[in-house]
């Protein structure tokens, strides 16, 4: 039975039309739906004027869609082959951004590539997932039990994390670490090693706190008690919670959100776009949006479970975790559950760099799905 | 297509079968671990959902309120302040339109150029320019800054014509308080000024910039009525406070007009007759309405409106003539012989003397080691009550006071409005001091019979206001416990107290009062001390009483040399007093006049009182066009 399917897969992998047929169009439709939510939210953020944000968002999504479908057609083995090259490219960009990048709001660093601003730290997360998936692809259970085998991937995580911390961007560094950890976990790293890792992190946290920048510390202390400084650092959290809460069950209606339209909400078109949705469309709108994003993450898991090779599984689980962290950190941030971190909501927030990297990730995911049954070579001991 | 195998190498021992087995194992581990990860992530989504539920549903109402507070800002606007009218409806405190030029900084590209153009129309001084630039810097860019107030018509027109060259500049209309009668009614009407920190209490209106509150006189007493209630407009504001739109508007309640009983023309006529240091209070004898209340010097209340300069304030407060103080209600004097009616009434009430009892006046009264002189050094001879008042015999009243005692005199004076709080609408009116035995003992000093004797002629510790003397006179004339008052109508509705029946009887026997009135008539018309100050016959006859109070003690030496007031410095001369009512047979007017350092009640105060009475008759007397005395306002 397995043998037969494998034969079928070989045949399926050859023709472009066959591959297009394999693309899960329901998922593409889901992405279009999420992007449409983003369009509506950005239309509202622009006060009903599409020229401000919504139009650009739609164009970017269109480009991203084409890019995603192109990547979906690329053979997963080719992707696996160039995984480390991509990783090295990502690290190079991180170094470049440290040397020549533009700094914004003390946290984000980007480089201008033609018309778009690229944040290499976003790209890096995907490249890291690729590299780790490639590394663990051939590892047997015994092999992963060997600590020496874990050292190269650990270094592969720590190098970009260190570079991102250097920017400095604490939030993204933590997310990158978590994405890497998820791949380690799924690959089968022993759970007690994880426990040791968490313990080490617990010991290191106070020391790290000492070395944080003042604004980063302010974010943490403000998070713990936002009302302590209502017009200072806590302002964003308070206004965001007011916007969310005042939306109620059904919301104030499209373009009727007072918090957003009277500019009480900071950065409503980027980090706080979810607040805008929750204010104008209420709990119903917020949960619908959240549900759609949950479906996107669930799809990543489906791809992982359907994949017949470890590379595809790890890639899908890494990308799924990345997508989950985007959504969780952003929504938890705007609901005042974790410190403000400057993480966009995928496919909804305004911004070219995030859209590009997110669609790139989904392209890889689709490729893993399309090529879920290909023969990828054996594992080693 | 040959599969590229980067990880090709020695396979697992056991060949293809073993690999497949291992692959299955690895897959199983992955599935379990991915399930754990997925469960965590699903749990996290659940957490977000519950968090949203809590924020949006459970705490939704609270946050909705907070959002509303964010969004809605209530702005107050001041209603027009009520006017103060005189008894003839003439505006004595009104509102004048105040055209102001405003600048909205964000609407002009080049602030300096705009100000330059503006100052070609309305010249701006360097100081003013600096103030404007400071305010522009301090405020948000959309907040209007006042460039200039009180623009003339011509300036306003030129600004409007040049509007295209003056981006961001607009003309707006406000109001400012104006007192057309300037210093003539300042002490009565009072003035308005910016509220002090302590005034800003419960009324949110007082927090408005540019608001004025009554700080003295009627403006202060009736401040709440005149002020009205603030209107409110609810506006939607954005995060930086800019008004987006108006949501709701509640009109304020305009301040009500207050009509006072003073006749402006009469007031001005009285002021024209008096000189510096003189105070005159003219009441309607039947109901206590204040018809004129004049003192000199005064001040221009309009100055307070735009803020008093430090130099002006120093000048006012340092002046010995105290222009800011209303001497009618706050000046304190000994009543002198004008008080003798009280002593007489007290003696009658206490039944220590009958009207016909004769007291012989040898020119002095010896009591213990002291000799108390009469102003008539030769003595008046035998005096009864009527002749003693008429001739103002001191010895008679020394004797009466000795018989009655100070406390009964004080009680009688209190009944006539002296040394008690008067119910007049002038905040800060002083009660004065009516000395009693208990008062003196409270000071730790004994009260001697000698003190009582001196107080019998209105000298000593008395501190009485000209107003209270006028009230005494009106109460003698009417026999009613009238209160002096200024309010005739509020918002067009007549105030209580304009009819004589509104006031209760004094409770003094009419026969006693008639005797006193007869004596006062005789003072002017029966050969008494003020015989030279009779009214012209067509106005009827005036009844009155003179008074002269020493401000310095006259030594025995001076007395023996023949004391002549014209030879001493003015500030050493006695004050001259006169109280009067007229006409005698049907009293309309009651008057008190105090001429500081006027030397003699009969010489200085009585003729002035006669002139004021004539003015009153001409203005408000029977058959006159301005006849409105005691007539209820419509």
Automatic annotation (TrEMBL), chain A:
Protein topology in the membrane: Multi-pass membrane protein
Locations listed in the record: Cell inner membrane; Membrane
One GO process term, biological-process aspect: cell division
Keywords: Cell inner membrane, Cell membrane, Cell shape, Cell wall biogenesis/degradation, Glycosyltransferase, Membrane, Peptidoglycan synthesis, Transferase, Transmembrane, Transmembrane helix
Annotated GO CC locations: cell division site; plasma membrane
Residue ranges crossing the lipid bilayer per the database entry: 20-45, 57-76, 83-103, 148-165, 171-187, 281-302, 314-335, 347-370
Group of enzyme by EC: transferase
Record flagged with keyword Iron: no
MF (Gene Ontology): lipid-linked peptidoglycan transporter activity; peptidoglycan glycosyltransferase activity
Catalysed reaction equations from the record: [GlcNAc-(1->4)-Mur2Ac(oyl-L-Ala-gamma-D-Glu-L-Lys-D-Ala-D-Ala)](n)-di-trans,octa-cis-undecaprenyl diphosphate + beta-D-GlcNAc-(1->4)-Mur2Ac(oyl-L-Ala-gamma-D-Glu-L-Lys-D-Ala-D-Ala)-di-trans,octa-cis-undecaprenyl diphosphate = [GlcNAc-(1->4)-Mur2Ac(oyl-L-Ala-gamma-D-Glu-L-Lys-D-Ala-D-Ala)](n+1)-di-trans,octa-cis-undecaprenyl diphosphate + di-trans,octa-cis-undecaprenyl diphosphate + H(+)
Annotated Pfam families: FTSW_RODA_SPOVE (PF01098)
Protein's UniProt keywords contain Transmembrane helix: yes
Annotated metabolic or biological route of this protein: Cell wall biogenesis; peptidoglycan biosynthesis
EC number: 2.4.99.28
Family as reported in the entry's similarity comment: Belongs to the SEDS family. MrdB/RodA subfamily.
Function according to Swiss-Prot or TrEMBL: Peptidoglycan polymerase that is essential for cell wall elongation.
HAMAP family according to UniProt: PGT_RodA (MF_02079)
UniProt-listed PANTHER family: CELL CYCLE PROTEIN (PTHR30474), PEPTIDOGLYCAN GLYCOSYLTRANSFERASE MRDB (PTHR30474:SF1)
Stated name of the protein: Peptidoglycan glycosyltransferase MrdB
Gene name of this polypeptide: rodA
TrEMBL record, chain B:
Entry keyword Signal: no
Keywords: Carboxypeptidase, Cell inner membrane, Cell membrane, Cell shape, Cell wall biogenesis/degradation, Hydrolase, Membrane, Peptidoglycan synthesis, Protease, Transmembrane, Transmembrane helix
Entry's localization field: Cell membrane; Membrane
GO molecular function: penicillin binding; peptidoglycan L,D-transpeptidase activity; serine-type D-Ala-D-Ala carboxypeptidase activity
UniProt domain Penicillin-binding protein dimerisation: residue ranges: 79-247
GO CC, alphabetical: plasma membrane
Protein origin, superkingdom: Bacteria
Record Pfam families: PBP_dimer, Transpeptidase
Membrane topology value: Single-pass membrane protein
GO BP: cell wall organization; peptidoglycan biosynthetic process; proteolysis; regulation of cell shape
Domain Penicillin-binding protein transpeptidase: residue ranges: 279-613
Matches recorded under InterPro entries: Beta-lactam/transpept, Beta-lactam/transpept-like, PBP_dimer, PBP_dimer_sf, PCN-bd_Tpept, Penicillin-binding_protein_2
E.C. designation(s): 3.4.16.4
Record protein name field: Penicillin-binding protein 2
Lineage: Bacteria, Pseudomonadati, Pseudomonadota, Alphaproteobacteria, Acetobacterales
């Amino acid at each position: 039975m397995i043998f037969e399917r494998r034969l079928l897969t070989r045949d399926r992998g050859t023709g472009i039309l066959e591959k297009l047929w394999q693309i899960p169009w329901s998922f593409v439709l889901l992405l279009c739906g999420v992007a449409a939510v983003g369009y509506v939210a950005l239309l509202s953020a622009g006060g009903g004027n599409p020229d401000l944000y919504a139009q650009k968002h739609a164009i970017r999504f269109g480009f991203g869609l084409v890019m995603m479908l192109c990547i979906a057609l690329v053979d997963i083995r080719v992707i696996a082959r160039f995984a480390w090259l991509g990783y090295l490219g990502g690290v190079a960009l991180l170094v470049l951004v440290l040397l020549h990048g533009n700094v914004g709001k003390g946290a984000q660093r980007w480089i201008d590539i033609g018309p778009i601003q690229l944040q290499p730290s976003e790209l890096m997360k995907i490249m890291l997932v690729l590299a780790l998936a490639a590394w663990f692809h051939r590892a047997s259970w015994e092999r992963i039990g060997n600590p020496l085998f874990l050292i190269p991937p650990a270094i592969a995580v720590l190098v970009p994390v260190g570079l991102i911390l250097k920017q400095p961007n604490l939030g993204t560094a933590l997310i990158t670490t978590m994405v890497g950890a998820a791949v380690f976990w799924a690959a089968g790293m022993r759970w007690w090693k994880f426990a040791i890792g968490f313990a080490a992190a617990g010991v290191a946290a106070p020391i790290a706190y000492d070395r944080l920048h003042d604004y980063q510390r302010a974010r943490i202390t403000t998070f713990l008690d936002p009302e302590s400084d209502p017009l200072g650092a806590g302002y964003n959290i308070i206004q965001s919670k007011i916007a969310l809460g005042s939306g109620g069950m059904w919301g104030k209606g499209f373009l009727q959100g007072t918090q957003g339209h009277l500019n009480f909400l900071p950065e409503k078109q980027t980090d706080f776009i979810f607040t805008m949705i929750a204010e104008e469309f209420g709990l119903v709108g917020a949960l619908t949006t959240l549900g759609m994003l949950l479906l996107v993450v669930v799809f990543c898991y489906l791809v992982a479970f359907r994949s017949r090779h470890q590379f595809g599984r790890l890639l899908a689980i890494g990308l799924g975790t990345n997508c989950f962290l985007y959504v969780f950190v952003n929504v938890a941030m705007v609901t005042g559950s974790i410190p403000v971190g400057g993480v966009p909501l995928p496919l909804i927030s305004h911004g070219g760099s995030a859209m590009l990297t997110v669609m790139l990730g989904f392209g890889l995911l689709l490729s893993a799905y399309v090529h879920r049954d290909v023969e990828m070579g054996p594992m080693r001991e | 297509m040959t599969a590229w195998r980067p990880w090709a190498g020695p396979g697992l021992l056991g060949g293809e079968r073993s690999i497949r087995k291992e692959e299955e194992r690895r897959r199983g581990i992955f599935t379990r671990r991915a399930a754990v990860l997925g469960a965590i992530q699903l749990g996290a989504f659940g957490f977000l959902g519950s968090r949203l539920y809590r924020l949006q549903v459970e705490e939704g109402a609270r946050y909705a309120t907070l959002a509303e507070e964010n969004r809605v800002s209530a702005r107050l606007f001041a209603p027009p302040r009520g006017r103060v009218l005189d008894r003839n409806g003439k505006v004595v405190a009104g509102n004048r339109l105040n055209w102001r030029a405003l600048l909205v900084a964000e609407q002009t590209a080049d602030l300096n150029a705009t100000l330059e153009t503006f100052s070609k129309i309305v010249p701006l001084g360097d100081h003013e320019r600096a103030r404007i630039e400071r305010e522009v810097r301090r405020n948000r860019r959309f907040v209007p800054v006042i460039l200039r107030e009180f623009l003339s018509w011509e300036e306003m027109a030129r600004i409007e014509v040049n509007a295209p060259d003056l981006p961001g500049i607009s003309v707006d209309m406000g109001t400012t308080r104006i007192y057309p009668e300037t210093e003539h009614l300042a002490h009565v009407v009072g003035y308005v000024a910016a509220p002090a920190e302590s005034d800003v209490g419960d009324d949110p209106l007082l927090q408005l910039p540019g608001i004025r509150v009554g700080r003295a006189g009627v403006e202060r007493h009736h401040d709440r009525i005149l002020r009205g209630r603030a209107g409110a407009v609810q506006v939607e504001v954005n995060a930086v406070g800019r008004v987006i739109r108006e949501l709701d508007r509640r009109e304020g309640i305009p301040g009500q007009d207050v009509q006072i009983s003073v006749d402006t023309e009469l007031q001005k006529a009285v002021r024209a007759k008096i000189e510096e240091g003189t105070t005159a209070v003219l009441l309607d004898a039947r109901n206590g309405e204040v018809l004129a209340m004049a003192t000199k010097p005064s001040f221009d209340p309009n100055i307070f409106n735009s803020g008093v300069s430090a130099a002006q304030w120093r000048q006012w407060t340092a002046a010995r003539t105290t222009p800011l103080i209303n001497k009618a209600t706050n000046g304190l004097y000994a009543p002198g012989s004008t008080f003798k009616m009280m002593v007489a009434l007290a003696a009658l009430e206490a039944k220590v003397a009958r009207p016909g009892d004769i007291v012989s006046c040898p020119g002095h009264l010896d009591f213990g080691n002291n000799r108390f002189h009469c102003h008539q050094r030769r003595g008046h001879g035998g005096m009864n009550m009527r002749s003693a008042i008429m001739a103002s015999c001191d010895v008679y009243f020394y004797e009466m006071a000795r018989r009655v005692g100070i406390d009964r005199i004080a009680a009688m004076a209190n009944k006539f409005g002296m040394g008690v709080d008067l119910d007049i609408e002038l905040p800060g009116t002083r009660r004065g001091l009516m000395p009693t035995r208990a008062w003196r003992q409270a000071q730790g000093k004994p009260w001697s019979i000698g003190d009582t004797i001196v107080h019998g002629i209105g000298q000593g510790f008395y501190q009485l206001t000209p107003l209270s003397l006028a009230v005494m006179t009106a109460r003698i004339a009417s026999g009613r416990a009238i209160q002096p008052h200024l309010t005739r109508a509020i918002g067009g509705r007549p105030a209580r107290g304009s009819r004589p029946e509104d006031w209760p009887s004094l409770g003094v026997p009419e026969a006693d009062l008639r005797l006193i009135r007869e004596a006062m008539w005789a003072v002017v018309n029966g050969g008494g001390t003020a015989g030279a100050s009779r009214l012209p016959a067509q106005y009827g006859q005036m009844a009155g009483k003179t008074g002269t109070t020493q401000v310095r003690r006259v030594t025995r030496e001076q007395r023996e040399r023949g004391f002549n007031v014209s030879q001493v410095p003015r500030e050493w001369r006695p004050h001259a007093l006169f109280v009067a009512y007229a006409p005698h047979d049907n009293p309309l007017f009651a008057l008190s006049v105090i001429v500081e350092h006027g030397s003699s009640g009969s010489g200085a105060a009585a003729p002035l009182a006669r002139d004021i009475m004539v003015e009153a008759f001409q203005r408000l007397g029977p058959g006159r066009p301005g006849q409105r005395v005691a007539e209820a306002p419509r």
